[in-house]
Amino acid sequence: MTVNGSGHVRAAILGASGYTGAELLRLLARHPDIQISALTAGRKAGQSLERVFPHLASLELPHLAGLDEVDWDPVDVVFGCLPHGSMHDLVRRLPARVKVVDLSADFRLRDPAVYAHWYGLEHKAVDLQPQAVYGIPELYRDAIARARLVAGPGCYPTSVQVPLVPLLEAGLISPDGIIIDAKSGVSGAGRAAREEMLHGEVSEGFHAYGMGGHRHEPEIEQGLSDAAGRPVKVCFTPHLLPMNRGILSTLYVTLAEGVTADDLREELGRRFADEPFVRVVPREVSPATRHVRGSNHLLIGVCDGRFPGQARLVAVIDNLVKGASGQLVQCMNLMLGLPETRGLDQLPLFP
Amino acid sequence: MTVNGSGHVRAAILGASGYTGAELLRLLARHPDIQISALTAGRKAGQSLERVFPHLASLELPHLAGLDEVDWDPVDVVFGCLPHGSMHDLVRRLPARVKVVDLSADFRLRDPAVYAHWYGLEHKAVDLQPQAVYGIPELYRDAIARARLVAGPGCYPTSVQVPLVPLLEAGLISPDGIIIDAKSGVSGAGRAAREEMLHGEVSEGFHAYGMGGHRHEPEIEQGLSDAAGRPVKVCFTPHLLPMNRGILSTLYVTLAEGVTADDLREELGRRFADEPFVRVVPREVSPATRHVRGSNHLLIGVCDGRFPGQARLVAVIDNLVKGASGQLVQCMNLMLGLPETRGLDQLPLFP
Amino acid sequence: MTVNGSGHVRAAILGASGYTGAELLRLLARHPDIQISALTAGRKAGQSLERVFPHLASLELPHLAGLDEVDWDPVDVVFGCLPHGSMHDLVRRLPARVKVVDLSADFRLRDPAVYAHWYGLEHKAVDLQPQAVYGIPELYRDAIARARLVAGPGCYPTSVQVPLVPLLEAGLISPDGIIIDAKSGVSGAGRAAREEMLHGEVSEGFHAYGMGGHRHEPEIEQGLSDAAGRPVKVCFTPHLLPMNRGILSTLYVTLAEGVTADDLREELGRRFADEPFVRVVPREVSPATRHVRGSNHLLIGVCDGRFPGQARLVAVIDNLVKGASGQLVQCMNLMLGLPETRGLDQLPLFP
Amino acid sequence: MTVNGSGHVRAAILGASGYTGAELLRLLARHPDIQISALTAGRKAGQSLERVFPHLASLELPHLAGLDEVDWDPVDVVFGCLPHGSMHDLVRRLPARVKVVDLSADFRLRDPAVYAHWYGLEHKAVDLQPQAVYGIPELYRDAIARARLVAGPGCYPTSVQVPLVPLLEAGLISPDGIIIDAKSGVSGAGRAAREEMLHGEVSEGFHAYGMGGHRHEPEIEQGLSDAAGRPVKVCFTPHLLPMNRGILSTLYVTLAEGVTADDLREELGRRFADEPFVRVVPREVSPATRHVRGSNHLLIGVCDGRFPGQARLVAVIDNLVKGASGQLVQCMNLMLGLPETRGLDQLPLFP
């Protein structure tokens, strides 16, 4: 039906057969500056994209190749959607001119020991780690624009750091006692066939998980510690929602002396006034994941807590867009000097 | 966050507070040639769009006005999403230069008596009816391009007529005994607060409805009769799916003498080869509503029946896009001489 | 198909056309000691039960009558599922021998001023209030057994008080700073036709609500204050899950000096060891709403918090059973001297 | 919490870790005459039932054993929930006094060649096949009561044969041209971890499958042929619903000369008047899967077709109860001389 755009930037998507790969394809295939020049998959290498993603059959796209078959010559930018541990070696082998936006955790954590602890893998590119920039444009725009290698943040960490980093930087909330009660749709768990992600197991039910510790905890704490200027620990409880897309994080924070919840809302409003994708909603509005589904938007609500000196924030994103593939495209736009919103103007799909 | 486009064509959406209105807004707000100049609502007139559709709060759009408050001067095209019976008088009152694409049934049925029978309303614009063109571009493109008034088809009828009209015209199937077992998501029932559409009533369940007769029956039969050159009656059974978007129609047809299911697939493939939104899938592929969600696509599958001389077809659409608002935009593009796909290149949202 | 049991206790259900009414019918129609002698409804008075609840058409039950038509003579126990404010006068008018289990908030709050503040209604039975017993059998069993009037607790308050009251009574947690992040399925909102509860609005999405204050807050605080022996304030944030049944409350508490999360688990295990419906799960198990759907069970999980001196608890119930109708039946059993589990042995429905 | 019943009939469930196994446990654990004496599983052998089915953790049940570990001495009846092909040898090895109710297809098809064709397996118990009775009590009650070996029917075949067999036997409909448009929830596909059954793949979508032929076709045709007294072929199109439980089959039939749809309804009403689990609904009622969820009920609706001499029927069941485990228990009750409804009086769970 339609032909893949013939933009001047040639992109390769590694690990294109999962949900974040599909989402990248949805976005990049309509990005006016991008041409998709290579797609890879693991078990599904050799299959046509139509078979793996029938909803994308209207596109004329390369077949899914094995990682070893990729010719890097006609590639300007690489999107990594591979399992954790795959990118350390790979980045080293790529031509220096190729820019990399990676969705694995391989370059998110500055401390290799922390990476090894949480992912059970040795960090094999410790020398490259300092070059990696953490990819939240609303917080680290300039560094991303100059980077060759961007570490795309986790979905939960995006929903937490965008609202909290500015407040910690401004000293409006205490770095202590931050509680994050987070809820995610199932697409965050990926497309691997696991019993616990079957429709029969997941629909019409709800539970918490990872209460003994979750990999996104150190990632969140790294960002908040930077913002606070001292080590921050958070209490993070993720839950699984019986739906496909969306993360909502309910944040319980302690206000700095003399600060009110309204002050937080105003500060965030000021900070994000010119951001194309972040919106601070009025006091009486409750952000819902359905208000951002399919878009790169992030909404923040702020209201009083119930205790003196306490406030609550609610942040929502589509975990596959602002929480993953959309944010990668946003970073790529910055890295390439393109307008930041290029290819990302999809409005939310409701209902 | 973003500003409503300043295209040169000024559009008014009447009845913008329902699901088809929301979908028009999603599409038109990103249509490069369109500027939304007026929005109306019934009970919700006076409210801000942000309140009615929080997911669209990033747009700068007019408030919802009452129908009587609309200034038609800065309006080039009117999208009607009003209840059945509302457009007869209104179209008469509009300036002649204003083009109208209407989603109600008010101009779909050529015979006023049939309209009166099924909708319980007198047809009050019998004189205008002959000007109305039925809005399926893949079947009636040229007439639509010349029309001032387009009657947007029902969702079920779109899913049925696109595959069957060409086969009847080509004489490849019998006009007799056509069985349509159709299934729709709940958004087709609109946004009105009714007990039977509550989440608690609809989710985790499935049922047939309208078995004593459904308003889309005469609409389907009008189109198929035209194609067959003689009166056609169909057996139509709609069902309600526990999901928001999507229609799948399973069609049981009798082949003409000597014709095979493969012949049907080939004929449809030929007929729709250059269509940007219609795709005939290979024999082994089963079209799914999730392959078109959020897009203006229509997929058709063809396979053998089980009886000699029988074939089965499956057609899927997103009822709010190709089955409603997307098709309206497609018609408008034709009426205005714009590229037919303008503003309609959204890829399906999966998962 | 089957006949309504001819038990010796004659029960009337007032407001039987909603979800809690349906759930009472499901339970009572199979309760060996109960005969359902009267059903009432508001707008739906005069309709057959088959029409209102087709899934119960196999039962031979009375038609839905208006409240004024009920003959109280053949009634031993009344189940109240009426809107808040309806029971004050009614209880006064009932014969003294009739026992009452009420699901409205009319007798839950001891302080009439608190009732008036949160429900916007004057408390018209202040003299009867002291007779009302709050209906959580696991906490107030003896009083319930002696009561004529039981105030059935709210769904959220049940999920919160069962785990926390014993811990406060034992002095194992601090009464200060308790955070309740609660999530409920949509059936808790009842069967009234409201736009915000349509399938199209609720499915595939998630949001918080009532952040400015929720009626279950004072109810929770009343119970926790009793347990703590001093006023307790909680921070309560309810959220709406895209599913029909189930509540999960995530509770963040501060441990008393020297106490560990394991101590909490042990104390709750001891306290509830003989309870037929409450189970404290092992450390490594995460309670899920799907583990209790359709049953009167309540599961409690306990784990460490992330901060020193902090613990987290997770409690799950089916809001229509243990959170409403099932708990009413449990109370009625106690009030009538029947075995507490009579009619309540349904196992969870999974998947 | 509760103890497994100490009934006098000792039952073993083979393949207890899937959805039909869970459903058998739900039913049998509350069956007053049954004691569950053995449970087996394949990959999950050795695990506790609490781990495999946390929702059943309140029961005191045997651990999941390997098939080879089962001591058949304390077993009176065996429930087979094993993969197709497993029961042929096993039944031969069981003591003759042990009764067998099997849910696999191993004894459903009388013709071993048909079995081999559709299941790709040699029939290894051709000599035992004649002893096997097809387990739909409403059609074959007497034979089931005398049987040692019952072949539990498929879910789709149950929903089709119960309404159609009586009509064919009475000569009220033609054996020719029967169209079955069937829709099933996902639990019918079992609990195996397969990508296409993930929540992300299945929810919010709908598709047809098995259009090239489905294993339930020959099973349906065998039963209908028996009823018609001559070979019957049907056109069967199954679809997958985005929900867990429920089958709805829409049946298009040709009336015998002079017969009306009302005649069909009356005949079925007469035939099933005394059946505890089958109900023929009034003309204006549309059977819904949510009206039977969790129960052993089967509802049948009958209405006119649209063509002269055509009628439509709609049948609904819960595929895990009347379509699988509930029907097995019903058969067992008959085989053991117990009341047929024993342990099966659960009312539907709605919402």
How would you describe the shape of chain A? globular
Radius of gyration of chain A: 20 Å
Strand composition percent of chain A: 15-25%
CATH class of the largest domain in chain A: Alpha Beta
In percent, how helical is the residue content of chain A? 25-40%
What does this protein structure show overall?
The structure is a homotetramer of 351-residue chains. Chain A has two domains: 9-153 and 323-335, 3-Layer(aba) Sandwich (Rossmann fold); 156-318, 2-Layer Sandwich (Dihydrodipicolinate Reductase, domain 2). The mean pLDDT of chain A is 96. Chain A has ten helices and 14 strands. With 351 residues, the first copy, chain A, is an alpha/beta fold. In chain A, strands 3-2-1-4-5-7-6 form a seven-stranded parallel β-sheet, with helices on one face. A seven-stranded mixed β-sheet of chain A has the order 9-10-8-11-14-13-12. In chain A, 61% of the residues are buried. The two termini of chain A are 26 Å apart. In chain A, helix 1 (19-28) packs across helix 10, helix 5 (137-146) runs parallel beside helix 10 (321-335) and helix 6 runs parallel beside helix 8. In chain A, helix 3 (87-93) links the parallel strand 4 (77-80) and strand 5 (99-102).
